[in-house]
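HUMAN:
Sorry, I am quite new to this. Are you able to go through these amino acid letters and fold codes? The numbers rather puzzle me.
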Amino acid sequence: MTEQASGVRLDVVRVFCGPDGGHGNLLGVVRDGAAVRDAAARQRLAAELGYSETVFVDDDERGVIDIHTPSVRLPFAGHPCVGAAWLLDLPELVTPAGVVAVRQDGEFTWITARAEWAPDRTLRQHSSPEEVNALDVPPPGEWIYAWAWQDEAAGRVRARAFPGRGDGIDEDEATGAAALRLTHHLGRALNITQGAGSQILTAPGPDGLIEVGGRVALTRR
């Protein structure tokens, strides 16, 4: 859905929707990045919107994007890239971290990136999905990706993400960068159920590249 926010037109999408089309992590996309040129102004708008990330599109023909959380600017992030890739329908995106290849495969949008582009995450394995489900939100501090095998042979994972930033995002519904880090750590394709029911698919590729894919849908706030 396109909305007005602080004088700019904002598209709001859900990224990494579940098999039933529900869930997914909300993403704000400012299609006209020139309307908010100043870095400080972008940071203020991202904080005002309160999504885990907001994307500013600086060139909608080349796919140049700028990503902000409510508190920091990121050179790369997974769910903003998947959401922007779906919305802009381009073969690649240009981020400060590097060029992100994009492909569409039926209901899934895929991006290709490197694990080292993703911010550091604490990958904390638990003994069962039930243990992950029972976790309380930890106090602000380290960024924790809590996970457990649902079916190790099939590569199915249950996960929850706790950013620990103290910026009002206590738990991230779906996080492509953390999924990318976990895929690199385990060295195998994964089918991740995160948050309340979001789905993230990953697959290692050649030369250290990793694909991250999911469903995207327009939504309301």
Observations:
- The two ends are 9 Å apart (CA to CA).
- The domain at 2-95 is CATH 3.10.310.10 (Diaminopimelate Epimerase; Chain A, domain 1).
